[in-house]
Design brief:
The structure holds 2 protein chains of 2 kinds.
Chain A: H1 3-33, E1 51-61, E2 68-74, E3 80-86, H2 90-94, E4 108-115, E5 122-129, E6 135-137
Parallel strand pairs in A: 3-5
Antiparallel strand pairs in A: 1-2, 1-4, 2-3, 4-5, 5-6
Chain B: H1 2-19, H2 28-31, E1 40-43, H3 60-74, E2 101-106, E3 109-114, E4 119-124, E5 141-147, E6 150-156, E7 176-185, E8 188-196, E9 205-214, E10 230-232, E11 238-240
Parallel strand pairs in B: 4-5
Antiparallel strand pairs in B: 1-2, 1-9, 2-3, 3-4, 5-6, 6-7, 7-8, 8-9, 10-11
The chains are: A alpha+beta, B alpha+beta.
């Protein structure tokens, strides 16, 4: 099956996930961050800051307990910085329309993240805009982890 | 002669009752009459154990432990717990992870498959008792029976490595958990959990979790060690490993 068809299907699912997240996202985060019983706390992330980055996908690691999206972001001096962005799990996202091919190496994307407090190039992926303009939401729907 | 005939009649008439006198769920025939717990269940948010309810009433010793933990957290000394290192939560928290569970009936046993941390619980419904001196484990030793459409599960034998909900609320190895599983609506499972602990709690602590049914879902693999970049140090500091390595 060609990539365009897959993308079209995934796009419809993503849209549903996005709408759901708008309604439910606040409850999810409220439940999560107040408890340490999910996989980990958010103490290393600055959840007050929504940082926007634009870069090129190096690799999507479709792994537990979290997916990791690696992107290269160009700096003003011509160098690049590799950012590591943590998302939910393949289990959670796979049930909400994402696949291991949602991001492909070389894709130019925009992301909004909660950056690490340490200043290291990493953070929690909140949402991303794919090359075709569709937006995917990490906390898409109920649950978390 | 007449007396013997009567006895024979009584035995024949009542025989089916004896045949059914084993615990409900002990045979495939009796499993067929149990409520339909099929499909996957995901805990719903905004209610249940995560919202409201009377807080646990802790004994002075355990209240002091919680206070110490909370203060250390507030000072930024404790940032995360063992789950960040892929240690499963244990009971009761393992039942309310943001991942689905599946409940299977086989003769004499109910098995709960828990996707988070790839855990399972087995609940013996064959009428056996708890061991006299159970090994202490994360999920404990469970026996259960049906009361009408409600599955009652009684669990003992817990390691004190796990916490009772939040990280600072501890329990002893005397913790005793009773859960009542029932369908509150066709696609809504409610589990009322009552926790007793003579060392940690001054009175039983009850909360109810609700789960939504997803018949179309299947369990997914969860190997936490696959690519776990989060960690908690021995003294409670949280961190993240950002070394890139192509997979």
């Amino acid at each position: 099956m060609d990539r365009t068809t897959n993308r079209g299907r995934a796009r419809a699912l993503r849209h549903v996930a996005m709408v759901l997240s708008g309604i439910l996202g606040i409850f999810v985060l409220g439940a999560w961050t107040s408890r340490a019983e999910a996989h980990h706390s958010f103490s290393v992330f600055d959840m007050q800051t929504n940082k926007e980055l634009e870069g090129e996908v190096v690799e999507l690691q479709w792994t537990n307990p979290h997916i990791f999206l690696w992107i290269d972001v160009a700096n003003a001096d011509g160098t690049k910085t590799r950012w590591g962005l943590e998302g939910m799990s393949p289990n959670f996202l796979g049930r909400r329309g994402w696949t291991k091919n949602t991001f492909r190496p070389g894709d130019r994307i925009k992301v909004i993240i909660w950056p690490l407090k340490s200043g290291e190039p990493g953070g929690t992926l909140q949402r991303a805009t794919l090359p075709d303009g569709t937006e995917v939401v990490n906390f898409g729907g109920r649950g978390g982890g | 002669m007449l007396r013997q005939a009567w006895l024979a009649i009584v035995l024949v008439v009542t025989a089916p009752l004896y045949a059914q006198s084993g615990p409900q769920g002990d045979t495939w025939e009796s499993i067929a009459k149990l409520p339909d717990f099929g499909g996957l269940w995901e805990v719903t948010f905004g209610g249940g154990p995560r919202g409201g309810g009377e807080p646990a009433s802790l004994t002075p010793e355990y209240a002091a432990k919680l206070k110490e933990y909370s203060q250390a957290t507030a000072r930024g000394e404790i940032e995360d717990g063992p789950a960040a290192n892929c240690v499963p939560n244990g009971m009761p928290s393992i039942m309310t992870q943001p991942y689905p569970i599946e409940i299977l009936f086989t003769p004499g046993k109910v098995t709960i498959l828990i996707e988070a941390y790839a855990q399972w619980r087995q609940i013996f419904t064959d009428g056996r008792e708890h061991p006299e001196d159970p090994d202490l484990t994360f999920n404990g030793h469970s026996i259960g029976h049906w009361e009408g459409d409600t599955l009652l599960v009684d669990t003992v034998g817990f390691t004190t490595d796990t916490s009772l909900g939040g990280g600072g609320m501890r329990h002893s190895d005397q913790m005793h958990i009773v859960e009542r599983f029932r369908l509150a609506a066709p696609d809504r499972l409610e589990v009322q959990t009552t926790i007793e602990d003579p060392e940690a709690l001054t009175k039983p602590f009850t909360r109810t979790a609700a789960y939504g049914r997803h018949r179309e879902w299947t369990l997914a693999e969860y190997v936490c060690q696959q690519n776990n970049r989060n960690f908690t140090t021995d003294d409670g500091k949280a961190g993240i490993d950002l070394r890139f390595e192509e997979r």
